[in-house]
Structures are given as C-alpha cells and as structure tokens.
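Q: Predict the bound structure with zinc ion.
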Amino acid sequence: MAFERVRKVVDTKLAAIGLHIKYKIRTLKEGESYSSNRSHVIYINPIDAKSKMMARQNLRHILFHEVGHIFANDNFTKKIKKDPKFLALFGDLTKHYRRDMRKKFRHIDFVSTYAQVHPSDNFCEAFAVYCTFEGNLKEIFKHVKKRAEKVRKQMRWINKFIKQMNN
Ligand SMILES: [Zn+2]
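A: Predicted complex:
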C-alpha cells in the first residue's frame, strides 16, 4: 500500500508518546483529505502534502493531522471542549464543522494558516506538530519560535493532556 512507509513512521512516533490509535487509510484521488471519526477511516489525498497552508509539507503531517481528528473525537468530552482554558487556546470544537477558507494568511497565534479554518483544525495542526517531534517540547518550541506564546501554550496543553491520559 502507498502509505505503508509513512504509516509506520507515524505509528512509531505515536507509540513513543504513548498513543495507540487504530485507523485505516484510503487513498483519495480528488477532494481534500478527511477522516471518518466514528469508523476511524482516514481518507488521504496525497496532493495535500504539498499545501503551504499546512504546518508541514509532507504526508506524515497530513496523516498526523487526520489522526488528530480521531484523537479529539475519541478523547475530548464536552467538559474538556467547554473548558475556558481549552476554548481560549483552540476555540470551540463543538462549532459546526464548516471551514472558513477565507483565512489564507499567516497569523502568529496559529501554528499554520490552515489552523485558522476551524477550531478542530487548529487543534489538529498543533497535534500534528506535537507528534512529529514526539512530544519533545524543546524541539517543538524551536520549530514554532516565530509563533506567538499561544502556540507554545497549545503544545503544553497537549503535552499535559496526553501525559495525564497515559497515567
Ligand atoms: Zn482537518
């Protein structure tokens, strides 16, 4: 399968931070990548790996991003999503999933341009960068050094959440 190699890297990195998420991958020939949160099927259009709107331009990032949607759906209770700290960092994930594609400019409060299209994608973009560096905050902060403190706070939040989950 086309994604076998990238999947191996992604799963190894997820395991390194204590996450074991089961999912299937299907290839899309048109349209944007997405995931079916309930069935844990990730549909990937390889062209998305080239998108400058994403935090990183590779397939691994796209896969981490989509895994992020599944992770959020599986683990975020309404209580978490409505927590003021969470809302301040990521926005309201319960908001109807309709992306605002007008936001095409970089903003230092976001880890990527795409992170601005919906609070769920804000979380997934941060999650993907967090996973890329296997939760190593020092390395992550180096990567996001041009971003606002808010992005570092997002990373710390994800770090704390995953550590608590794994306890
Ligand atoms: Zn997304």
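A: The chain has a mean pLDDT of 95.
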